[in-house]
Amino acid sequence: MSWLTGFFGSSSDKAALAPTEVQTKPAQTDKPKPCCVCKDEKTARDDCMLFSKSDDPAKECEALVEKYKTCMAGFGFKV
Predict the structure, then answer these.
(1) Residues of the binding site for Cu cation
(2) pLDDT tens across 42-58, in order?
(3) Reduced to 3 states, what is the DSSP secondary structure of residue 6?
(4) Given pLDDT bands bounded at 50, 70 and 90, which one contains residue 79?
(5) d(CA 2, CA 48)
(6) 67 dihedral zone (left: phi>0; alpha: psi -120 to 50; beta)
(7) pLDDT at position 15, please?
(8) How far apart are CA 50 and CA 48, in angstroms?
(9) For position 61, what pLDDT does the model report?
């Protein structure tokens, strides 16, 4: 008997180690977290807005904002 068998039980206890129905169900949502997607688009949008020398950064960066919104919508997020 190895120390693993003593720790995890005997090999005949495989039913105890089998995944339960709760563990095999998919997560409540398959959608990733909003912070984890469209990182490049978000960075470009933020840099444009923060470092704009224009009087109207929103207008100047409109294309990047739309690109970010389109990317997020592709993952099921409304921005």
Answers:
(1) 35-36
(2) 999 999 999 999 999 99
(3) helix
(4) confident
(5) 61
(6) alpha
(7) 52
(8) 6
(9) 97
Length of the chain: 79
pTM, two decimal places = 0.61
Query: Which two tokens mark 21?
Result: 């129905």
Alpha helices in the chain (DSSP H): 3-8, 14-17, 21-24, 39-51, 57-60, 62-74
Annotated binding site: 35-36
pLDDT higher than threshold 90 for residue 76: yes
Write b or e for each residue in 37-55: b if 16 or more Cβ atoms lie within 10 A of its Cβ, otherwise e.
bbeebbebbeebeeeeeee
End-to-end CA distance of the chain: 58
pLDDT tens across 8-36, in order? 555 555 555 555 555 555 555 578 999 99
Domain boundaries, the chain: 3-74
The whole-angstrom separation of Cα 59 and Cα 68 is 15
